[in-house]
Design a protein that fits this description.
mainly beta, 265 residues, single chain, 20 strands
Length: 265
Amino acid sequence: NANYSIDVALDHTSRTLNGRAVVTWRNITSASTSDLRFHLYYNAWKNMRSTYLREDVLAGSLYDATAQDDWGWIEVSAVRLLTGDSTPVDLSSRRRYISPDDGNPNDQTVLQVPLPSPVQPGETVNVEVTWTSRVPRTFARTGTIGSYYFIAQWFPKLGVLEQNGWNCHQFHSGTEFFSDYGIYDVRMKVPGHWVVGASGRERSHTGNADGTTTWVYHAEDVHDFAWTTSPDYVEQRATFTHPGLPPVEMRLLLQPEHTAQAERH
């Protein structure tokens, strides 16, 4: 009931992702909602005042508060409600950060977007979101080192509406991730010779006039989408077979210094 069609471009020089998503969300509860709530996970590493890093420091983390070049963030530039006619409703001025768990005014990991009218039970809405993310240095299951990227929790992601309201917590240092299932159609533009691996199945990859390549992936009935890219990946393929089971196509992406480990993987 939460489907994403995403276009994203990686700018390696600035370590940024420029993205646009159309989110198609259906209210499967028996209650209406007058707002939408999005996770902005990368804002956990925007500065040392986020709830995540405050908790991490209290737990004795060795995170270097002075290494500001390692930080990441996500900035939503526009939110628009797509309607049946040709005139979307701009919701950008309505949005605001909220801290439903601890009231931390400096935490920006949850974005509330009030709607012009409530979404009723069974009703579907389409929302367009544009944003820019700066990828942090590899930290807590996402990030980049050199020209290696592992991209997770990277886009504005809807929380889960339950019978008693939104389950959309701030990003905590001991958190897990909870979200609705849906279909993901994602188009990732990266430098031309870079290799991409991602959730779901590859549909195509096509070279562009500007020297980049767009990789297209499709995933069904999943609750998140992650991807990785690097110019150094060595790709190996094999097929798993076993009596009584369908064959499984395997694709392994390795850094060159790890190719001797391919068979073990």
